[in-house]
Design a protein that fits this description.
Length: 314
């Protein structure tokens, strides 16, 4: 079993935001300060280039500088998301696979400790889609030299469902650390996915911002979530209480986190990145001028007010 499995089990890995100006340019001074603050928190690692950080949309140069900034801020493991965005100029399955592998090789060169492989939505249209997914993971591991996290991502973010049989097959690969579920609101699929990983000895990673506590009751033992990009302690407290067997503490912490999730993760779901940026500003993690998400929908002021009202109440 890979040493990272034992190191990461039971820990929180925030899927961090990438501070940007209104022009979409990465605000590196703000990023350095944000990284230092996150690194000092209750974390076991950091997920960079993830959906929350818009990693698939960044240029290769920006991805390198972003990862280097995090590497300078912490010695904790860095897990880099690799893949292609849903709206992309890449056409064809093979080209998308090549781009995913190339991004993983780049992540290794910049000092990532592992990569999280985004699912290719196009696999859902192939007769042998599951076999193709397994081959992609094997190729990423072989060419990057890094261990992998599988990623069951909901369709609204450009993923496709991982069947229990596919999850079992992925977790049987020696290069796999575990599988993250991010099914959004599909409780049955989430539960089945987590149960499929039981007895494998690999990490059962929750990415369920709106089903965070329940996913732990179903068997998740590690967390990699965008909701921890701000107000980390809310997420850490739930995981800590569950791991300690503190039932009353778990219920209290879950209720608090669920209130925050309800104010940040709802339709349009792509707006959650901007809402988390607003939360990070309120918390003093990033400055106002660096809290822009150029890749998400334009949101009304009322949504910002909802986030702030929730945080004030908490």
């Amino acid at each position: 079993m890979h040493a990272l499995v034992d190191q990461l089990r039971g820990t929180l890995l925030p899927a961090v935001v990438t501070p940007m100006g209104s022009d979409g340019v990465v605000a590196y001074d703000a990023l350095a300060a944000y990284a230092s603050a996150i690194a000092a928190g209750p974390i076991g690692g950091v997920a960079v280039w993830a959906h929350t950080g818009r990693g698939l949309y960044l240029s290769e140069a920006d991805r390198g500088k972003v990862l280097a900034t995090w590497r300078a801020a912490t010695t904790a493991p860095l897990v880099a998301g690799v893949g292609v965005p849903r709206s992309t100029g890449v056409v064809g399955v093979r080209e998308a696979e090549d781009a995913t592998v190339a991004m993983a090789i780049t992540a290794a060169g910049f000092g990532a400790d592992a990569v999280m492989v985004y699912p290719l939505a196009a696999y859902g249209e192939l007769a042998d889609g599951e076999a193709a997914a397994v081959r992609l993971h094997q190729r990423v591991a072989a060419e990057s030299g890094l261990p992998l996290v599988g990623f069951y991502l909901h369709g609204e973010a450009g993923g496709y469902p991982y069947s229990p049989s596919l999850i079992k097959e992925l977790l049987s690969l020696p290069e796999m650390l575990g599988v993250k579920t991010a099914t959004l609101d599909r409780a049955v699929e989430c539960q089945d996915a987590i149960w499929a990983g039981r007895s494998t000895g690999k990490l059962l990673i929750t990415g369920e911002d709106r089903m965070y506590g329940p996913s732990m009751m179903w068997g998740a033992d590690t967390a990699l979530v965008g909701i921890a990009a701000a107000q980390m302690e809310l997420s850490a407290a739930v995981l800590r209480a569950w791991t300690a067997g503190d039932s009353s503490g778990f219920l209290l912490a879950s209720e608090r986190l669920d209130r925050f999730a309800a104010a940040t993760f709802y339709a349009p779901i792509e707006g959650y990145v901007q809402r988390m940026l607003w939360a990070a500003v309120w918390e003093g993690l990033i400055p106002e001028e660096a809290a822009h998400d150029p890749y998400g929908p334009v949101l009304p002021r009322s949504e910002r007010d909802l986030v702030i009202h929730c945080l004030q109440g908490l």
